[in-house]
Amino acid sequence: MAVGIESLVHLSRVQTSRLQKLEQAGEPPVLKHWTRNTPVRAKEICGGGSLYWIVKGAIRARQRVTAIEKGASGKTGKRCAFVLDSVLVRTEFKPMRAMQGWRYLNEDAAPKDLMQRSENGGDLPADMAQELRDLGLL
Predict the structure, then answer these.
(1) Do the beta carbons of residue 7 and residue 55 sit within 8 Å?
(2) Does residue 2 sit within a domain?
(3) Is 1 contained in some domain?
(4) What is residue 113's DSSP assignment?
(5) Residue closest to 84 by CA, chosen among 42, 33, 39, 123
(6) Is 3 a domain residue?
(7) Which of 28, 52, 99, 116 is the most buried (most CB within 10 A)?
(8) What is the pLDDT of residues 85-94, one digit of tens each?
(9) What CA–CA distance (Å, rounded) separates 89 from 70?
């Protein structure tokens, strides 16, 4: 779940800010999502799996998991980091209630990636399309 995140634009800004802070600190700019527990199916996840982001009660995007690292994250003491690809892939809107723990989505249950907008003039304006997506209407 993307706790405290208002939209995918907000998530993207937060991630960009984290990468910039890492660079400024002289550390590798790598996105990591920390959690307490290591997933049982870690090998499967690293073999092409994604972390699906739940924002405002629905899955809205995913990011490919490139690695899973075990260890502490400093002051929080969490033990597992999902190393994420920097590309945030928008998905179909899929309502999902708040939860704790892991949920493994089989390919047929996972929301499909949204296609990139074509550049022809018949498309909706980008802001309108995004608003309709956020409402689950597109």
Answers:
(1) yes
(2) no
(3) no
(4) B
(5) 33
(6) no
(7) 52
(8) 999 999 998 8
(9) 25
Residues of the domain holding 79: 8-134
Q: How would you write 75-133 as a 3-class SS string?
A: HHCCCEEEEECCCCEEEEEEECCCCCCCCCCCCCCCCCECCCCCCCCCCCCHHHHHHHH
User: Is there a domain that residue 76 lies in?
Assistant: yes
**CA 32 from centre of chain:** 11
| 91, two tokens | 């998905």
Model confidence over 47-95: pLDDT tens digits? 889 999 988 888 999 999 999 998 766 666 668 899 999 999 999 988 8
What is the number of domains present in the chain? Answer: 1
Q: Which residues contact 132 (CB under 8 A, 6 or more apart)?
A: 124, 138
